[in-house]
Design a protein that fits this description.
The chain contains 29 helices and 17 strands. With about 625 residues, the protein is α+β, with helices and mostly antiparallel strands. A hairpin with a 4-residue loop joins strand 6 and strand 7.
């Protein structure tokens, strides 16, 4: 796991000192090594920088940027099948100076060009500078495990693993994108390709960029789309056995490293499957890590402990108290380079710091719910959508509801939960498809609330999923949105804050493609994964009601963290930053403290204001 930074500077205003300062903002992603290459052309200067966390070939042979003939590469991630690809290249006459996957990627591109990415199994974001073609080509992996931000202006192209380096660029346009703010208020994260800044985008998963240095033309192309596999489902025999073999292969590939590897074990189906299979094929006890909580409503550590004991892993758990968790909260705006309100980041940071004491790589179970229909909300929404579709005079009711907004004083005077149900029902009427109805149902702030909170327009990113069943449409939507923009951001930034590499074996594209090509009846409620897990662990150890990685955040906000709410959501800072309407926020807080509203709205606003305060020297608040 590493951090990369590249700049094509047409003004030639960047010097080595400034570039190093920008690159060093990624030091947490790669504390073991750094490298910079500068290419001076008549029209521009090209800077390629890299911070390295040494995982495979930890010698200096894996140093980046890596050069080969007319090509140079900077790379973040892992290609797990690099040894097989290396053998193919050796048969074509290539020689290798290292045991690193970086060199394999570089020479794969030299031989196959853009098509090389089709051969890679792994997580990656990498950029290749081709001095012969005067092009820069930037790839992101299929599932969006690794991040890639980019910004193009008349004077520069900048791309990086995180937003931080861009904030240090002197000519960076820091104007806030209010459509991104709207996205954040809806979901607690910002949907790609948008970012919090108008001039920056995220490269979508399964895409690559091709940039012509002379013409400044930037082309974005898709090389992989999960829709293709949903739309071409195939009949299979021995489905469970075939999937299990694919899973075993993918999981074992992710144990390749020249440093110690461990597993995050929550006790749920997905992480238990990872731990069980990895332990089955390990010659020694693997390291597993669990975070528990003193509050038993949020504690799964006993389940994890029982599974670890059964598997015989070297298990480490930390039962954290409230003070441990609260200490993380003030660090979150520094860990996450955009506003981010998934409160499960708190235990994820804690378990990352716990694991880093023993290992440098950790596997997690992310992706199972999106691929194998694991969220209870999918089935519930399918039932609700059928009922919504049967409402008589729906179009007329929609027009009437849009004329009369639901005023916030109803929440203050009566019942906040009822208010939320009414306003979500009203907004659901705006959509005739299940995906966007599902998004409304899971949103934090509604359309009416967002219009009251921010002065600029409401933005809703509509999905165009494959023509499949309603359950699968929701799964595709989450795979393309919630998974890369929330879950992968959470695991990447949390692990990287501890200089720990996170790997997600269920997101091997062979597993993704297999899952997408299965009929939904095999996937519903993760039945097929449960069947496989039953080969390794007794069912009584894992068959139970699904429990999230949650914390009592609203109780804390009313008590221990009230000082943060008072500080960041108080009149002075709300009006100073000029993003949210103070009168609306104050009414929301009134209902919150009266316990008439117990959703995540206050937390979402607090995380935004804390992020803004951390970055206020960089951000233009458009006052």
């Amino acid at each position: 796991m590493c951090g990369l930074l590249g700049i094509v500077d047409y003004k030639k205003s960047i010097n080595a000192s400034l570039f190093n300062e920008m690159l060093n903002s990624l030091k947490h992603r790669g504390p073991d090594d750094e490298g910079v290459e500068v290419f001076s052309l008549d029209s521009c200067s090209i800077f390629l920088g890299h911070r390295r966390l040494s995982i495979i070939d930890i010698s200096s042979n894996g140093h980046q940027p890596m050069l080969y003939e007319h090509l140079a590469i900077i790379y973040n991630g892992e290609v797990y099948n690099f040894k097989d690809i290396q053998q193919d290249l050796i048969s074509e006459g290539y020689l290798f100076d290292s045991n690193s996957d970086t060199e394999v990627i570089l020479k794969s591109y030299h031989f196959w060009g853009i098509d090389c990415v089709e051969r890679f199994r792994g997580m990656f974001a990498f950029a290749i500078y081709d001095s012969e073609q005067q092009e820069i080509i930037i790839f992101r992996d299929r599932a969006g495990v690794k991040p890639l931000y980019y910004s193009q202006t008349d004077n520069a192209l900048i791309f990086s693993s995180e937003l931080r380096p861009l904030l240090n660029y002197p000519d960076f346009n820091k104007e806030i994108d209010f459509e991104a703010v709207s996205s954040y208020l809806q979901f607690g994260y910002i949907h790609a390709p948008k970012t919090i800044f108008k001039t920056v985008q995220k490269l979508l998963p399964g895409y690559y960029l091709k940039y012509n240095i002379e013409s400044k033309i930037l082309v974005k192309e898709c090389y992989w789309n999960i829709n293709d596999f949903y739309e071409n489902q195939v009949a299979r025999e021995d489905i469970v056995e075939e999937l299990e073999a694919t899973i075993i292969e993918a999981f074992n590939l992710r144990m390749i490293a020249d440093v110690p590897v461990g597993v995050f074990l929550s006790g749920g189906i997905d992480s238990s499957l990872v731990a069980a299979i990895v332990q089955k094929y390990s010659k020694i006890p693997i390291n597993t890590f669990t975070i528990g909580f003193e509050d038993k409503k949020y504690d799964e550590s006993n389940y994890a402990k029982e599974i670890a004991k059964y598997l015989g892993t070297n298990h480490t758990e930390l039962i954290c108290n409230k003070e441990d968790a609260l200490a993380i909260i003030t660090r979150l705006p520094k860990i996450f380079d955009e506003p981010f309100a998934d409160s499960s980041a708190i235990p994820t940071v804690l378990v990352s710091e716990l694991a880093k004491k023993q290992v440098s790589v950790v596997l997690s179970g992310d992706g199972g719910d999106e691929l194998f229909c694991g969220y209870p909300g999918y089935v519930l929404m399918e039932k609700r959508f059928k009922l919504l579709s049967k409402i008589p005079f729906r179009k007329t009711l929609r027009k009437i509801s849009n004329i009369f907004p639901v005023p916030i004083f109803i929440q203050n005077k009566f019942n906040g939960k009822l208010y939320n149900k009414v306003i979500k029902f009203k907004n659901m009427l705006d959509h005739d498809d299940i995906v966007n109805t599902f998004k409304v149902a899971n949103s934090v702030f509604s359309k009416d609330e967002i219009k009251g909170l921010i002065r600029e327009g409401y933005f809703f990113s509509k999905d165009m999923p494959a023509t499949t069943s309603n359950l699968e449409k929701m799964m595709i939507s989450d795979f393309k949105g919630y998974l890369p923009d929330d879950l992968m951001v959470k695991i990447d930034r949390s692990t990287m804050s501890a200089s720990l590499e996170g790997r997600e074996p269920l997101l091997d594209h062979k597993i993704i493609e297999f899952a997408a090509s299965l009929q939904v009846s095999y996937k519903k409620n993760k039945e097929i994964l449960k069947s496989i897990l039953g080969h390794y662990i007794p069912e009584e150890l894992f068959l139970r009601k699904k429990q999230g990685f949650g914390i009592p955040i609203n109780d804390w906000l009313r008590e221990d963290l009230k000082y943060l709410v008072d500080q960041y959501l108080g009149e002075e800072l709300i009006k100073k930053y000029n993003i949210f309407d103070y009168d609306y926020v104050s009414k929301l807080l009134e209902a919150f403290y009266a316990k008439k509203n117990d959703d995540n709205k206050v937390w979402v606003l607090l995380m935004f204001q804390m992020w803004l305060s951390e970055n206020i020297n960089f951000v233009e608040c458009n006052k």
